[in-house]
Design a protein that fits this description.
Distance between the termini: 64 Å
Shape: globular
Number of domains: 2
Strand content: over 45%
CATH topology of the largest domain: Jelly Rolls
Number of helices: 2
Helix content: under 10%
Number of strands: 21
CATH superfamily of the largest domain: Galactose-binding domain-like
Length: 293
């Protein structure tokens, strides 16, 4: 036991020497627990629904690193400094692909850093003013713009929730699957010959989705190229239990496969997981997000 304690002490001492070189050896700490989305009066962004995974921290414009939140971030500075924070996401829910979310402004605050003390920041961010939302679905009008496709066993249900939520309102969309109805396929504007144009010029296109599900489901697009709709799967969202989560799906690479696109539509699909008797896939505050040229 003593041998392990001595080894741990040696490791911590060595790490400390290499981490805090220079005049200041004891850091200040910045705690970031969450981001808050605030209204941009110049656009219609819909519900202020947000769930950032990471904080990308800058001190006086010097990039300090990317930190999964909640986090206590050590900063080898003291006194007044300009702190900038960008919200980061896991692209398509994958931990290996973490990036700053391209549609949110950078949070900035003057902070008085004190050695060996903790200051809490709650970054309030908003969408850039050139952000556009070609499609949005909140289910608050008691209907759904996600249409049952041919071959789907079920349609989207719109269900009232017992408690009002300031972000998700009091209704959400639900897909129910069971052994008699094991498959769902839904899309916007199904068989209507219309869709949403894409901006081109490598401008990012994302879908934001809040969900609570005991079953996996897929998100993709129907690409109309040459007058034909082609299914492009993009991501599989894994079941996540009883907690609501928000995921950010990057459609850009799938769109860039095509030299010419008339329009796209958002496509959801699911098959009953093995071992699940009844799947309940709740969706809310869906947004197709891009930027104007």
């Amino acid at each position: 036991m003593v041998r392990y304690l001595l080894f741990a002490l040696f490791f911590l001492t060595l790490w400390s020497c290499h981490s805090f070189e220079g005049e200041q050896e004891v850091p200040a700490f910045i705690h970031i627990d969450k981001f808050v989305l605030v209204d941009n009066p110049g656009i219609n962004e819909g519900p202020l629904d947000i769930e950032m995974d990471d904080a990308n921290l800058y001190v006086e414009n010097e990039f300090l690193g990317t930190y999964e939140i909640p986090a206590d971030i050590p900063v080898l500075e003291s006194s007044e400094h300009t702190i900038k924070v960008r919200g980061g996401v896991k692209l398509n829910g994958y931990s290996a692909t973490r990036v700053a979310y391209p549609f949110l402004e950078t949070y900035e605050e003057e902070v008085d850093l004190q050695i060996d003390s903790l200051i809490t920041l709650t970054p309030h961010v908003r969408y850039y003013s050139n952000t556009v939302f070609p499609w949005m679905e909140t289910f608050e009008d008691q209907g759904s713009s996600l249409i049952q496709m041919q071959g789907s066993d079920v349609a989207m249900s719109v269900v009232s929730t017992p408690d009002y939520d300031s972000i998700r309102g009091n209704v959400n969309g639900v897909v129910y699957l069971d052994n008699a109805h094991p498959r769902a396929e839904l899309s916007t504007n199904y068989q209507e010959g219309i869709g949403y144009p894409v901006p081109g010029n490598n401008i990012p296109v994302f879908v934001e989705v809040s969900y609570c599900s005991n079953n996996d489901f897929g998100i993709g697009i129907l690409v109309n190229s040459g007058g034909v709709d082609k299914e492009e799967p993009v991501a599989i969202v894994r079941s996540g239990g009883e907690k609501w989560k928000r995921i950010y799906i990057n459609l850009t690479p799938s769109i860039q496969k095509y030299a010419h696109i008339e329009y796209i539509n958002v496509w959801f699909h699911a098959t009953l997981n093995e071992g699940v008797e009844q799947a309940v896939i709740k969706l809310d505050n869906l947004k197709l997000v891009t930027k104007s040229l």
